[in-house]
Every structure is written in structure tokens, then in C-alpha cells.
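Homework help board

Subject: predicted structure for assignment chain

Our instructor gave us this sequence and asked us to write out the predicted structure in C-alpha cell form, then describe one feature. I got the C-alpha cells but I'm not sure how to describe them. Can anyone check?
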Amino acid sequence: MRTLSTIGDDPNDSGNWVQVSRLGMPLTNEVVIPIGFKDYWNSLTPYQELADTQLDGFFYNPELALYMDNSLFGGAVPAMSKLRIQRNSLGAFDFGFGKDGLFGLKGNPALAGTALDDAVFGTLLLPGPGKARSVDLWPIFHTGVPNVIPYQLATGKAGNPLAAGKPFIHNFLPNGGDMLRLNMATPPTPRNSPDFSPLGIVQAAVLGLTNPTYNANANLQWIPNMDGFPNGRRLEDDVTLIELQAVSGVALAAIGLWYDDYVAGGSPVTQDLLDVLTYRTGVNENDKPFKDSFPYVATPWSGTETGE
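My C-alpha cell output:
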């Protein structure tokens, strides 16, 4: 604590240094952790976070999801009206706040050999009822995503989200905690490539599901932007938009858990899916150019600059 004086004394510093902020995955505190726990979360290390199971609950049911559900507070933020979570995916699975998600499959023989099988990753991904986002948001933020069924693109799954699909991102590190995870075996997408996109993995999933170059088979292929967030974080990645889309269920859709307006036998590219994929925040690029040498990030605006 620093105490300033008006009588000419030097500032008085007392007490120990304490951590007041941390950052691993961008926007964890803003998107996932609710008011009342933000300072507490900021005070921890990722390793201390692992031992505090009460924080897991916020990844299972992020507060932001309350505003992407018309049965809760969806109408409170009209600007996010296109961002809606699957409440009846494939006519069976409810990923709404406090719902069971895929937990109803617990113990089902169909899970054998998948990442949701207790024999593979224990109870990490299906820990209990009422933890709707334990299969998508929790691993994205806490452990990274394993390249194990069902975490493969719906390409090749023939309508069964638990079947093998097109291999995709693999940045799984089972130590948990809020950290950026990067699979350095994934080739970078050249910045001058027409396929480069600030939507990162979301755009890679779109290409893997819709582009004939990639969706004609379920073979392992490098797909442009597989090197994007949340597989690490490129400076150009629009992490705010990607996380808004992720909270609204886009990762679930990518593996074949389609939105509520999907009709069996029809196209999974439904209006609800298009609404999420085409959602934009209105911020399309950095307001200062990046540098071409270390540290590459643009110099922040000073408190006296106007930007004009």
C-alpha cells in the first residue's frame, strides 16, 4: 500500500506485495468468473485454482450464458439476441444454465473409448448433473481440448456426435488451471493467406465442415487457422468474438451437437447456427498497427492521446 502525503514527505510504502491480477486464457475473469469472485480469482495462481473446486462451477455454468438464454435473461441484452445456446440439441440435450448437458449419457455403452468414458479421463468431463458446459467450456479453459472422440469435427460422423470425425485441434494438457495452451506441431497460417481469419479455431471449424478441400473425408489435415485461439493466441485473433461464440455453443455444434432448429435429415447449417457464426461485435481490427519486431504488440494509447 502506498500512502501519499501533501506535507512534503516521501510516499510511504507498507505491507507485502500482493497479486491483484493475472491472465492466462483471455477474458476468463470477464466472461466466466462472476461479480463477487473476480478479485478472489485474480489473487490466485493457476495451481491454487486447481485446488479450489468452487471455481469449477463457473466454467460449468458461466454467468454470461444467462444472457444467451431466452428462458432466463436473454432479453436483457438485445445486442446479443443472435447468440443462443442449445437447449434441445438433437432433441435430447439441454446445455442451458444449470442443466445436465451430456450427463444423461453417463454410463451409457456408447461412451466407451471416448473422452467422456470414465476409463479414459475419469470424471473430468462428466463430473455430475447440473454442470451443463463440462464437456466444452470447462476443457477449453481448464485443460485444453484432446484429439479424442467426440472432440473431432462432425465431418465423417454421419450424424452421430459420439462417432469418430475429422481430427482437429489438440492442445490437451491435463494439469488444468487457467493457462494458454499451444500445440506447436500445428503449422501457422500465413498472414498473407486469403484463408487467414481473426476467428481462429471457429473459422477452421467452418472450413473443416463446409469446404470441399477438407470436408470430403475424415483424414487428418492441416486446416487454415487451426493455429488460432484457443490454440495459443495470435495477435490478430478476435478473442472477444470467439469467446462469445463459444459461450453460445459453437464448439458443441462443431462436433455435431447442432442447434435446436436442426431437423433430422436436414442440413445442420441452420438459421441458429448462422446467427452465431455471423455475429459480430463491430470491432474488426486493432486500432493501432502491430509492430514487425519484438514485442510485436502495438504501443498502448497514453492517457493524453486522442486517437485523431
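Reply (TA_rk): Your C-alpha cells look well-formed. For the description, you could write something like this. The longest strand covers residues 2-3. That's the kind of observation they're looking for.
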